Amino acid sequence: MSTIRLTAAQALVRAMAAQHTNIGGQTMRLFGGVFAIFGHGNVAGMGEALHGVRDVLPTYRGHNEQGMALAATAYAKASRRRRMMAATTSIGPGALNMVTAAAVAHVNRLPLLLIPGDVFAGRRPDPVLQQIEDFGDGTATANDCFRPVSRYFDRITRPEQMIPAFERAMQVLTDPAECGPVTLAFCQDVQAMAADFPTRMFEDRLWTPRRPRPDTHELTQAVQLLRGAQRPLVVVGGGVLYAEAEAVLAKFLDAHGIPAGETQSGKSAIAASHAMNMGAIGVTGTQASNELAAEADVILAIGTRLQDFTTGSHAVFKQAGRRIVGLNVQPFDAGKQGGLALVADALAGLQELAAALADWRAPAAWTAKAVAAKAAWAEVAARYTAPSNAPLPSDAQVIGAILRAAQPSDIVLNAAGGAPGELHKHWQAEQPLGYHMEYGFSCMGYEIAGGLGVKMAQPDRDVTVIVGDGSYMMMNSELPSTIMLNKKLTVVVFDNRGYGCINRLQRATGGASFNNLLEHTLHEELPEIDFAAHARSMGATAEKVAGLAELEGALARARASTRSYVIVIDTDPYAITDAGGHWWDVAVPEVSVRPTVLEAHAKYVAAAAVRDAVG
Predict the structure, then answer these.
(1) Do 386-570 and 216-377 have the same topology in CATH?
(2) How many CB atoms lie within 10 A of CB 388?
(3) What is the third-level CATH fold of 216-377?
(4) CATH superfamily of this structure's domain 3-207
(5) Tell me: the pLDDT tens digits for 515-543?
(6) Strands (E) located in 247-349
(7) % the chain with pLDDT above 90
(8) Alpha carbon of 103 to those of 110, 156, 181, 235, 488: distances in Å?
(9) Is pTM beyond 0.90 here?
(10) How do residues 459-488 score in pLDDT, each as one tens digit?
């Protein structure tokens, strides 16, 4: 066997550089690069190794470990999981800062290679700087925190362990069913140790997406259910985009006259203008989607985890005897809510479903009802997004202004706060990947870092990041990275002076405004934060606008700008689109001295009873 002598870190990065994918007929490297913040636990080993491959595997300097790993996660999502990135840190706090990003990737089934430094495998200098000592377990390190948020975890304590560890890592990162974050905790002394590695480890390898076709029996059952349906509905999940199945899905809906509701991850898989696209479904859904969901007797859930925001905490599908067909590449997701599992790639599964259904169509009355519901919702939504003379615009009105200024190829990105619900209802995405929402983990701070990752994956499309003042304060550190890398973003900061979304939820569950909006916190003086000045201090162009009229001009200036452009606008913390939507299970205290809480609890019990009665 032919071998080459390398350090374990050199072997890892050389192997990474040898992995390839093919997208649109073009072969390119599977790893788009490595985000790195160096410390004593990785600067000598990984730092030297990355320097040696910098021409084929670029290293990008991050400003915050969580931020750079979030950017890598967004890169994978915007690449439909066909390309990915890695992130490396030192041990201790640097490593633990990536745990949140690992959870984001884990929940969203996204490939992310995490390479945190670890303690000395040889233990001679223990305890080293930043080492956590467990009194009862000599093998425990800070990196054990990655175990529950990794699809595959390994600790490299000898250089030759990298051979099977890397093979396993690649299988997980590229498998459509198992896909998620991989953590290779890399002992810092082992990074620098040499071994004789087989040269086959560094030979070019091309990864193509596995497309499992449905089991014959499962397909037959699914077809029988759909053919017998009087009121079928499709739920469009993110798996449609990952499988590149959006064109096939659009034809499927047309051919069979089936309306569809979109999850947060599935939005943009079919054009907003498609006749059968009812828009958002669930807690933040449209009237059109949720009214049809309440009557649906067969639900074809494609590439979705069916999380509680999608299902209205298991209450949005109200028909007794309804059946769910879970078309999903992951059996765990395919069988949720007692559904009939149709385990397959979304593209392959839709193709075979379409062929088996042939010329079958849903009843004409059901299709016509969907068309009417879509038109009715469009009129309602237009009223919420239209400008007004209110002292402070609502989130929906600001979103309406951004949408009117947008081009079809634009990508809008968000993650947390009130904007996800408003965007889910109101944003009109016409091209695939034009809507990028991290609402699996709903990670505050994802927005700007995620925007960087999306722009790196989709450099030819304009990216608009919508972020609340609360999320901006949590993480804005990758804004300078957009300047360094010339990855221009338009960032619109919705400043409602606090956590407006949770304040509304607090009040809706009977509570008083408390510790969410700045004015309702324990304070001696309220801060007057100049977000525009702060953004300028980090290299962006920035301005604050006085209202919707000024916002339109600012958006035009932002589009013309060659560097990241931040626009700040004050918004109403209380206004929300109260049309559409659905109940969400948020437990309310049974005991309280406040009548408003007791009233809210009674409403909660009644709503839960309705849900439980449907089953």
Answers:
(1) yes
(2) 12
(3) Rossmann fold (3.40.50)
(4) Thiamin diphosphate (ThDP)-binding fold, Pyr/PP domains (3.40.50.970)
(5) 999 999 999 999 999 999 999 999 999 99
(6) 260-262, 277-280, 298-302, 323-328, 340-343
(7) 99
(8) 10, 21, 8, 24, 27
(9) yes
(10) 999 999 999 999 999 999 999 999 999 999
